[in-house]
Batch of 3 targets.
Target 1
Amino acid sequence: MLTKITLILSAALVAGATLLAQDAKRTEASLIAVLKAESSQKEKADACRELARVGTREAVPALAALLADDKLNHMARYALEPIQDAAVDEALRAALGQLQGRPLAGAIGSIGVRRDAAAVNPLGGLLASPDADVAQAAARALGAIGNAPAAALLREAVGKASDANRLAFCEGLLRCAEALGAAGQGAEATRIYEQLRSLKGAPHQVQTAALRGAILTRGAQGLPLLRESLASADYLMFAGAVRTSFEIPGPEVTAVLAGSLNGLSTDNQVVVIQALGTRGDAAALPALYGAARAGAKPARTAAIRAVGELAQPASATALVDLLADTDRDIAQAAQESLASLRGPIVDEAIMGMLTGDNASLKLVAIDLTSRRRMTTAVPALLKAGKDNDAKVRAAALRRAGELAGTSEIPALTDFLMGAGSGPDLEAAEQALSAVCRRASEPGPIAEKLAGLMAGAAPAQKGALLRLLGTLGGPVALKAVRAAVADSNAEVRASALRALGDWKTADAAPDLLALAKAAANPTDRELCLRSYVDLARNPDLPANQRLSMCREVAALVQSKGEKRLLLSALGSVPSLEAVALIGPYLGDAETKEEASAATATVAEQLLKNKAPAQTAAGLVEPLQKAAQATGNADLAKRIQEALKQAQNRAAKK
Amino acid sequence: MRQHVFASSVRTPAKSPLPPLAAPASVRVNRRHFLKRAALAAGVAAAPSLIPGTALGRDGKAPPSERIVMAGLGIGGRGSGVLGWMLPEPDVQFVAICDAKKAQREKVKQTIDSRYGNQDCKMYPDIREFLAARTDIDGVLIATGDRWHALAATWAMRSGKDVYSEKPSSMTIAEGQKVVETARRYGRVYQTGTQRLSEANFTFANELLRLGYLGKVHTVRAHIAPWDAAEMSHAWLAGEPEPPKEEVDWDQWLGPCPWRPYNAAYVRGGWRGHYDFHTSCIGEWGAHTFAQCQVAIGAADTSAIEYQYVKNDSGDGMVTQFGNGIRMILNRGGWEGSARGWKGSCGVCYEGTEGWVSVADGYSKPEVSNPAWMGDFTRIVRDYIERTRRPMSHVRDLFDCIKSRRQTIATPVMMHRSMSTVHAANICMWLKRDMKFDPVKEEFIGDAEANRLRSRAMRAPYSF
């Protein structure tokens, strides 16, 4: 049902475009008329809601008349509060003497939102109201107004406030102090903060808020108070001071924080050190280096992490020194922080470790080159790939693979071809594999690797075949196909596995042919399984997968092979697949898998809104499957599908 | 003792229907002792490799004096999920539930009590009485309806409590400002429920952007809920007899919102889609996704400056522009010219000159333009954790910060600024015109009507 308000607005608004002045005036007049008429509460509330958007001083009298209304006083304020006109302030002020209870507390709140300085004195009088809601609202509103007279009233009243009201009065004073501080009246703000700091019974959050204000308002003169509070035995004051330090940028506060460290317990040191890191001032570094080198372990670790957080390249040297610390945790923390630093100085320090003599530091440097994605380190990593230390060689090659581009393929293949066997070969293959996976143009790399096959030893051939499988494509497939006929059994097995793992259907004809011709049962099974895996690939068209299943159906012999085929057929949503499954429903070895496959295909077809004719074709196979299965859950599924198929078929 | 610090300083309810309450013996704590011990625990948070978790207490469970004492405010379906994440934390003890609905109070009490094997969880129907009475509580989990989030957070922080607030954490721009102001004034720890800032997939996406994998980022996309509309209802459901106040306190349930007659559908969750209670399909997921995007592009402390109105009912396709030149586009699902879209909820997508990354809930891994980047996933997330000391657990981040007094990953400013973008996008849709916003003055430029929608008068006594 359209309300009066909807009708008024739809008459005045064209698709929500800005109201023209004349339309706006007419709309406002209509809304005011709703307020004055014998309208329902809902209609008047809606009118207030709209006046909040379009109302002017013209609407104020009608709205003000509702400020004492039990049901509509809030909606009247809802409309009045955003109207930027002094008439609203006058109306709200005038209402103060006439309202009580919630309407009064609400009007006070709106005065606060509007920051009506002329209301300070009447609000001051309400601080003594026996109605706690009213007194508290007055205190908060005075705080929102936040001028010196408001502050004076609150300062006078806060000491006498009841327990129930004290928090609101403190809130009012804190608001005043902030406003006065922002208005350049820092001295007055400071007096308020000091009064709150010494206020008997002030809750802890007020004490710390007052401390914060007292420090911030004083500016540079607040530093002694910050220093004193950092040394406080009262943890709340200490933590409040640390928290305040986040709000004051600059080296002076950094110096105060750093200077406090020596006198603190380890617990408090950790908190200050973390603050030094979070504040982001590099001036903290000398103190953090000191804390990182000596002291209690939690503080040392925190300092090392803070150094990393400050992310200054010049910290690299200090962190590199800490890598040699006898405490593994400290060295590890240094390594983590070093990883987060950026810049050429840091790269230089890491390169220094990588090209130095210390194997442990080399390993750290190798890890850091990868974590920092230092592509400039690839030549050095390749050089380290020939290190005397086997661990260094393997780590360097692996990381080189993570960072290298295709231009480094020749260097990496040299490693592969010269690696013999064991960890060096594995590392070289892993490096090349990483580069191959990232290659945007695998063809030329496949050419290069295929060209190496002829001169490679069996172990290298195995690695090359796996890499060709990673690359894929016709060149790689040709090379793998050729290797299937290799005289060496190890190479043949690698080629078969590469073919079996092929990512596209291009390998399917080879796999099928090999399965048909294989003399070795293991090879035959590998080829069959790989072929069926390809047939299950949902990215291939259903027809192609069905055709592949037909091809392989004649080959399957063992129970395992039959089940494999059924799993592939179950993934092809077509009646032909159901027909191919059919014979297996009568086979004791496969009836359960065949029933499940029939159910799956049927469910898929029915879900995809199979036409009536297709549904009809499902009925008999499903009935057979229902008879074949001994599994109660599966039988339930089949019956459900059967019911759907019968219903659908009946609709033709 | 902490009790002593608070006892004479807080508002005592004038007409409490409840007998005087003392904190349960198991949770009475010495505040100073707790916080001093917490400093050490902060060291633990910073350096997990140094001090084993078991050092916090026997069997990995912190002794009562070192636990963070928590309470729930308005815990329904969503809140129960968050409670389920918080309860297993060994250094946390929930001791109270405050809810305007009796059935919900009892249900949550049962959950908490069965977790601890006792009957200690106290129930409170009135939030003001609860805040005044329970001065022993360190933090609150706020999972009321959206209309209460900012006000409850502000009241709780003013009462000296740290806050976890469900999203959307403000209903208007003015509400967000109050949350920021209060957290800053009282030095409270606050976290908004943008959990994806603490999830590996989303973190990886943000880090790809920060580390330059994507090149120069020009566009980010933020998922908005694919149901409901930007325009919301002002209608009232048919009035029904109000239940007794002890069953459902309807006045408190409404809180700062305009009065309307009771209907059970509202309290069962049917408040969504109503202007007074909800922030539309844009706020429903935008509270998460705008925050993700703004953090990613370094705009967590500002808001979008331009909003282009789109002629549909949801805001789908709205282009917003940030001061750094990056545009954020609101999308309900897929977008024109791309097969990409999200296959889960609350997705974001970042697009740069060198590639893109897209992620949403339920992804086993983010989608990326260059699959090789996924090889760096573990390393990038691990480095992020090391660099920022942020765990991949939102609730753990909150509790670590309650101890160390550090800002959480989801700060009041981040909440307020991303929600300001939500509110401005809504206002753009409601007024059906393009908008320009000054993020310093926090006002619309040359649009007085839009500026009026930045705040709503609150119903007494439920105000800031």
Target 2
Amino acid sequence: MQTFLIILILLLGFYIVIQIAKANDLMAIIRGEEKSRKQSNKISAYMLLGFLIVGLFGVYWTHHTLGDKVLKFGSAASDHGILVDEMIKYTLIITGIVFFITQILLFWYSFKYRESDERKSYYFPHNNKLELIWTSVPAIVLAILIVFGLITWYKITGAAPKDSMLVEITGSQFKWEFRYPGNDGILGKKYYKNIDLANDNPLGQIWDDAANHDDIYVSGEPMHLVVNKPVKLIIGAKDVVHSVGLPHFRLKMDAVPGTPTTIWFTPIKTTKQMQKETGNSDFVYEIACDQMCGAGHTGMRGEILVETQQEFDQWMKNKKPKWATIKKETTTTAGDQVSASTPAIPATN
Amino acid sequence: MSDILNMQPEIASREVGHKEQHVHHHKETFITKYIFSTDHKMISKQFLVTGIIWALIGGLFSVLFRLQLGFPDHSFPILETVFGRWAEGGKIHAEFYYALITMHGTILIFFVLTAGLSGTFSNMLIPLQVGARDMASPFMNMLSYWFFFIASIIMFSSLFVQTGPASGGWTAYPPLSALGQASSGSKVGMDLWIISMALFVVSSLLGNLNYISTILNLRTKGMSMTRLPLTIWSFLFTAILGALAFPVLLSGLILLLFDRNLGTSFYLSDIFVAGQALSNEGGSAILFQHLFWFLGHPEVYIIILPTMGVVSEILAINARKPIFGYTAMIGSLLAICVLALFVWAHHMFVTGMNPFLGSVFVLLTLLIAVPSSIKVFNWLTTIWRGNIRFTPSMLYAIGFVSFFISGGLTGIWLGNSTIDIHLHDTMFNIAHFHLVMGVAAFFGMFAGVYHWFPKMFGRYMNNTLSYIHFWVTLAGAYLIFWPMHYQGMAGMPRRYLDKSMWVSFSQFHALDAMISVVTIIVFLAQILFVFNFFYSMYKGRRCRSINPWSATTLEWTTPINPGHGNWVGEIPEVKRWAYDYSKDGRDFILQTEGPGENESVH
């Protein structure tokens, strides 16, 4: 009933608007086309000026109401994030200046040069000097942005420090799983055909590879990282393309099935520090899937807990490698399915 | 409209009526005139009307998903009444949401802003403005529309299959789009999507080859390339881009079709989905992204270039000034056209692509800002010291420039890989491309429709409705997309249905609701436009002047309702460029007029 009422009101509204519009156009003809055209021309010009003023206020007001809800400059929680924030800041300043100048000129000229009987248009087809100026100035400014951008880009995507911690993150519809290399510091080989949910091998680790025997599998809880210690993420996916989005670290890297990717950074603030800084006791670092991956995309959420080395060691101490439980099972059951299905050409990380 | 031209309307229309009979010596039935027409003007109208229908559907989809995004806790029983299990309980389900956004993108980018836009204006204006009786191949031109029509029918029918239409995003990245197990939208709906897009590419190629050959070969006497209006230059570059880039999309889609149905592994490798390891090994999911974006990026220029041409023309006419820097405008179109082909991988900075390769694409991408800024400054100089008439089309042209600036500047953010690594695939991206190629292109299209409506139908659209439509759309589009930058700056990913479970992104409830309300209002304003369009087609004020806007170009030398063949008698000869407005104290000088004795030289 309510819906029909709304539709009825809408139809009535349309009808009224259309009738007024028709009458208005008719009136314009009766009053004399030229005269009413000039009048509406004036109205349009003033409305454009009004739009400029309201619009500029709107820019301020949007910033006033929403400015607190975004990730602030300098609040990045990783070393790379600080660089990204810097880059955004400079780009914002430059594009902001251009934005205000060009928008103000556009609407101001529109208003100022509205049609008038006293004015004659100025025949001005070209001017090489002007055109040269606004070819070269943007080119120089952009060159600066490109150079700074690329210097930062190479810092971010360069090789990870040797002492980085290694963590593997694997996306699948619609969850994240993590793997730590254990004491040997090497992630064991895996092969997707070894993935066997029934036999507790969700990542497809190849048990013949001894490097796998101390690898720690973590899921259903946050990825733990150590503050001020560089971490290199080895990113993979099992089914479709996902993306590891880390808004607080200002980083992102796709997870592509069949093609492992990497990214490294140094978290510089613990979760507790961030909770204090943001004044939000529920704060957690979130991993957001940024590449559409199916119906559950919205809920593909992971968490990262950044903590001190001691806290991390404490947490790690209670973790058992998957191999420990697998070994027990394989020795008790006669079949040796796991190693039998090991392929000739294992995929590596 | 202007006094000068209103002097002889009776004479003009009498002459037209008399001579039209001569032109129409071949008998036209309803079918040859309105359906299987080879007249470029009729084909243009067919594209436009089909585009309008698609735009309504695509726009309605955005209203539907905005309802859910704005009011996640609210139930809308009417949705269940209409869409059944897709909106059980009056809420839009995730599968439905992803189908809606996928089809919204596909429809608006391809069916409206490519076919509806180029199809309308290239077809309408190329023969009329270069001085040709029709396209180089009118029959191919007709086929172009009918391939588009079949593509439309298939895409439309895919909305009704039981497993739903394609729902892997308009970019259709495999493996999601290749595996029915991964998403119900990747079942038969995806096959229909691919087939429809393949036919769409055929349509677009038939059209583009025709546009290119007509512009190059069928110009009238005296119409050298440098005397062409900028509209034609922009259509030429658009057609070249389309002809070079669309075949690559076609190949990419055909390979996807093979992967889906024939067991090949072009894009598939190491996949464990729905509890099962697939046998495919050795493919690369990233390969598809390269093939897709090789079209996908030029595609945004295929959308924006024609509107740049249209806007340049309309700004000059209504400012009563020549376009500033005609040569620079062509040069910048050329630069954009060339660069457009070599920047595709800036959509892929975070796919694990080699960082060095990424840096090359950063360089080329940011270079595009140079020709773009030349265009903006030239437009500003064009209206500077003009004598501006605010026809609805002029207002739309000004709106276009405004949106192009707002959306273009954020391109400098996203084209820089250092920033993109943070903002990629966030709402910031949504704000950027909707402003720069969505809203801006629509504004260019509206400007063109209002401007050339008298040429198409011999009538004017209703002015008051046009002004209402303009102001609501201008303010609405900024209200919708400007705040989205802030959502993006909070790191909020795009394509999220419900943010309530997230700690980082759940702070925008009120904003999302506001955006949704404005979306509905803007959509209603578009219905006003559509009403205005169809109503004015039959009942609008008659255009009694051959040249209602006092323009210089050739289309305004044809009769008010030109028949097939456009000109009665000889095709006029062109003797000057297209932008002699307010020269030597004269309001405008038609392109057909020879140089005066005392004319100044610039």
Target 3
Amino acid sequence: MNKYKRITLDGLIFQNPTFMLVLGTCPTLGLISSAFSAAGMGLTVVIILTLSNVIISALKNVIPNAVRIPCYIVIIATLVTFMRMLLEKFMPDLYDSLGGFLALIVVNCIILGRAEAFANKHTVVESAVDGLANGFGFTIALTLMGIVCELIGSGSLFGAHIMDFTIGIFATPAGSFLVYGISIALFVFVIDLFEKAKRVKINKLARENMLDKEVA
Amino acid sequence: MTVKEFFKSTSFKCICVLLTILLVCGIFLTVMYGLLEVTEGERLQRAVAKVYAGETVEIYGKGADGEQTLIGADEKAPQGLISESVVQSTSTVNQMYKITFPDSKRVDYLVQVTGTGGYSGGTVTCWVPVQMNEDGTAIAGIGKVSIASNVGQSFIGKIQDAMLESYGPAYEDGKLYTPADGFVSAGASLSSTAIDNAVNGAIIYVKSAILGIVPGGQFAGFDDPHGLINTDLSSFEAADGVVTYKIVTKGSADDRNMHPGQFTLTIIVDATKTVDDIIIDDNGSTGEYGKHMYGINNYIGKGLEYFEGLLGDGWAYPSDGEIITGATESNYNVVYACAYAVKNYQNCIDRAGGNN
């Protein structure tokens, strides 16, 4: 498999930061009661994660191993502050809706985790692809859960009123926790089915090969 | 280790790299801040755009000569009509701008005001458009309120636009807003209280600064040893020797405790200077605390001696006694209001006789 395709599929599905690695739980639980906030947070993380991966990968041979974590934190904090300035200037509504969670991206374990686990061992291009894939994996997960929570909890979708029936708890972090748990279970179930089907296919091929060899 | 060895060591390299990264990041952020800074003028324009969406307005502030001056759209640091913040009982007025409409004679005052009494002692800062009548002699209504910022209000996102738009249609001259009147968003009741206080603060300030009406004048000179009664929101009527109070307490205004929020009470005091009836119109207790409150029926038929006995010397917060129940702060607000009502009975009668 092409390495870029593998990196992309890992970030989006097989190593999805939200559903498979259960990283970035704090903003997930805090923001998925609104699909707009969830999507906004996800896209912000895409930009910060990609830029931090690129910069850290580019500097990996310059930064001494002993001070790599403080250096990563300074770089990530700078990018987060820069994003805050951009959002406050050009997207004030999104800036307000993200509130304190925007500043907390500095300590988001997805970003530091990808810097430590991937960016400092791979090329700039690979790191950029990894950042984009993981960021979009996070964004898609948050947005899907945001849609469910907002629809059931507030009867709306991206702020537009859809229905009058609501279940209040889904508009709270407790409801978000419930949706998060169910989403993880469903996601892992589907991945397991996929892996199982893949294993069956491989075993079948292996048996056919063995039979071919025996016949020969 | 010699100096030469130190300069060749990994430690020195670490220091250099870390400091270089810090320096580069610092310079980058400084430059970006210069380019992306959101000026006060921009914040004002954003607030006006939210409050007066789709309308053409002119904003007037105070010029260098002290006269009202038209504020340009690109002005970075506009000066409002207020030189210093004005602290009121449950709000602080930060700034005020005069808004005019080229197509009509209408005049608004856009007030930026911070309401207290929010969750955990926090505040909510709002832009409140106070609309004047045609000849500028009275407040005609309140426009759509816009939230500018908040301190410690985790559930501010639950404040609904419907609530922020509802102040205008409900405006009556002389009336101020309380959660008891329905100005509250579910799930963010204490934040709603802070917004109510901000809106009320804007009304009181415009009445005082523009119309010259003294706030809380009905209660001027009344005994209130701890300032727990919100005289801006409270009122009384006296007839046939019976005084009917509508009392709003400040709840946690003295920072002793984060609980409760403000209480709104109807207290009737009869000619015997005892409580004839008491109704809690809005219970400021938070969470489940309200269940532990001392029964208010105990207060009916009681006079000042009884209430002072519950409160102790100087109506101070009691350290022991009957109202220590698990909802002591809530009990304190209610008992204090009863003591206030009974003690000031004669003041009310005198003031009513004086054509109040």
